[in-house]
């Protein structure tokens, strides 16, 4: 039973961490690609990505807005992938 619970928890953590990183990367792609900011997809992704980026969203302030999004939101995506890996390792040790 414990193995099953740990496996389910690891699966949920894995998908959530991956989903957070994907939202951030999609925001970067839409921004760099010049997607219409008024489009509902673009605005929805941005509204989800900004709180997920935490303090990374304004960590660096280069003049170029696209570079700012690449660096800050890219770092946030890497952060979430790192958190995902660490938490997964800890959860799997419970097994």
Based on the model shown, name its key terms:
transmembrane helix, transmembrane, membrane, 95 residues, elongated, mainly alpha, YGGT family protein
The gist of it:
The protein is mainly α and 95 residues long.
Work out the strand percent.
Answer: under 5%
Largest sheet: none
Report mean pLDDT, rounded to a whole number: 95
Number of helices: 3
- The assigned structural class equals mainly alpha
Low-confidence stretches: none
**What Rg do the Cα atoms give?**
16 Å
Q: How do the helices and strands follow one another from N- to C-terminus?
A: HHH
Quaternary status: single chain
Overall geometry: elongated
Number of strands: 0
Helix content: over 70%
């Amino acid at each position: 039973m414990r193995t099953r619970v740990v496996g389910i928890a690891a699966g949920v953590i894995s998908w959530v961490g991956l989903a957070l990183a994907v939202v951030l990367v999609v925001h970067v792609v839409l921004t760099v690609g010049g997607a219409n900011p008024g489009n509902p997809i673009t605005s929805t992704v941005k509204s989800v990505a900004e709180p997920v980026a935490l303090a990374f969203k304004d960590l660096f302030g280069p003049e170029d807005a696209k570079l700012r999004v690449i660096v800050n939101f890219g770092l946030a995506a890497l952060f979430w992938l790192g958190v995902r890996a660490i938490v997964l390792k800890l959860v799997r040790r419970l097994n």
